[in-house]
Amino acid sequence: MTEGTTAGQVAVRVQGLWKRFGEQVAVAGVDLELPAGRFVGLVGPNGAGKTTTLSMVTGLLRPDHGSVEVVGHDVWRDPAQVKARIGVLPEGLRLFERLSGRELLAYTGRLRGLPGAEVDKRATQLLDVLDLAGAQHKLVVDYSTGMRKKIALASALLHNPEVLFLDEPFEGVDPVSAQTIRGVLERYTASGATVVFSSHVMELVESLCDWVAVMAAGRIRAHGTLAEVRGTERSLQQAFLELVGANGRDTGSDLDWLGGGAR
Ligand SMILES: Nc1ncnc2c1ncn2[C@@H]1O[C@H](COP(=O)(O)OP(=O)(O)OP(=O)(O)O)[C@@H](O)[C@H]1O
């Protein structure tokens, strides 16, 4: 871990962030300060703008307006500084399919400027911990969904970033692999690093995160510690449904043809 990620500090500062795709406003003025050293969950319904926000925060998509600072560096003015300090597991993983898992890590390590021996050491440990040692010489194209997530996570962690951004890291991952990923992330945050991840799975967010931002229709509806966001509701799921206005939504009385009766 390098400078800057101790408790009380801000890992990510987002100000006035906007993004429009044609007529569709995906992100409509997001202001957010994510505390360092926390496990931060960005939650919201489909189409809320989570991926678009994370893409802009990690320098993958240029905002229409607004600024983003990660560990004190402006993402768009100082991209090299920021990219050296972050790890990203993006949505729709695009990996080098014709490399083996081991080769992918070796390549990533060299791109990150790490010495070869250090890359070897870290790769061996990550492959071991993530239970990929047996598949390290298999081509990535032949990996399962969960294995792809794990090798992508290993690539994102290899340079020991200060902040790790994960878009839906547990999607398509079986419970055993999820537990493994979870263990690695818990160890990582315990050392003072920050994890920011997006998810729709409230139980998961509730059990992993200590800080949450709820997003809907391109805006932040609530943010703060888990207890603050949950408020008086009995679960984060309930608080979330209240915040995004989904409680009491008609669950399909028009679908009277569905199930039973005539076909
Ligand atoms: N490249 C794009 N072109 C056009 N519209 C887009 C594009 N990317 C996102 N959008 C739109 O922006 C809105 C926000 O999308 P985004 O993917 O950020 O939401 P999300 O919260 O990540 O959703 P999900 O949980 O379903 O992945 C949606 O209405 C989506 O259709």
From TrEMBL:
Keywords from the named record: Antibiotic resistance, ATP-binding, Nucleotide-binding, Transport
Primary location recorded for the protein, binned into one broad class: membrane
SUPFAM superfamilies in alphabetical order: P-loop containing nucleoside triphosphate hydrolases
Membrane topology: Peripheral membrane protein
Bilayer-spanning residue ranges: none
Pfam family, one: ABC_tran
Top-level division of the source organism's lineage: Bacteria
Annotated ranges, domain ABC transporter: 12-242
UniProt-listed InterPro entries: AAA+_ATPase (IPR003593), ABC_transporter-like_ATP-bd (IPR003439), ABC_transporter_ATP-binding (IPR050763), P-loop_NTPase (IPR027417)
Entry protein name: ABC transporter ATP-binding protein
